[in-house]
Each structure stands twice: as structure tokens, then as C-alpha cells.
Amino acid sequence: MDGTVSGTDSGQGGLWAAIRDELRAKGIDLDTLCCAGMEGARAKVVCVAPDLAESVQEMGQAPRGQTVMVRIDEETIKTLDAWVETGYVKSRSEAAALFIREGLKVRASELEQLREALQQVQRAKSRLREKAREVFGDHDD
Length: 141
Known about the structure:
Number of helices: 6
Structural class: mainly alpha
Largest sheet: none
Oligomer: single chain
Distance between the termini: 64 Å
């Protein structure tokens, strides 16, 4: 999709129609905005799911004191910049933190399974250490 809005984009005509109608009700005409006779004119509409809006608000209330450095590709940085341009987030850092947070929420069940597996591994290591003490006696270095 090239960013233009049409009633048949990817089979989501109903969604685009609902968005267009809602914006028109608020005095915004997407057809005029996107195609006002200017060559290459485009508008970007960002729909924020209610839980995403809640996450943005939650992030503003909780301190973010931990630093994580990541290397990302050019397309991802453009996407983060686009989110900054919407005004919903203040910086690339905040956008990245938001989407890391949201990604973790989406994968919560898988992450819980991994946590459980890690706990099993930790218990097995503990049993191994106990068995080693039984076999070799206490080992103080």
C-alpha cells in the first residue's frame, strides 16, 4: 500500500470507510487532504488502539531509568520518527520503549512459558549442586 486511502485497500474497505466517516464527522475530509490537486500530496492517518493509548499514558507516569542500546535498520528508524511526528510520543526512545512494551504484551503467553522453563532449569541446576555436595562434600573456596 502506498499510503493513499481507498475503499478497497487490502480488503479493508469497511475499515477505511469507517475511518473516513469518523474523520468527516470531525471536519476532516481525507479525499481533499490526500488528493487536493497537489502532485504527490499525502496524509498519514495513524489509528491508535485504545490499549496503545493507555500504554502511552502509563509510560508517561512510570520512570524509565533503564538504558538499552539497540541497533536498528533505516526502515525502523523512519517508523519511529513517524511516531514521534504524530505527537503521541516525544522521542525515538519513547517510541522504541512503547513498542518493546507492546511487543512483550503481545508475546506474554510465550514469555510466560519461557519463564516457567527457565525456572525448571534453575531448579535442576540447584538439584545438581545439591547432589554434587552430597558426592563431593561441602566445597568452600
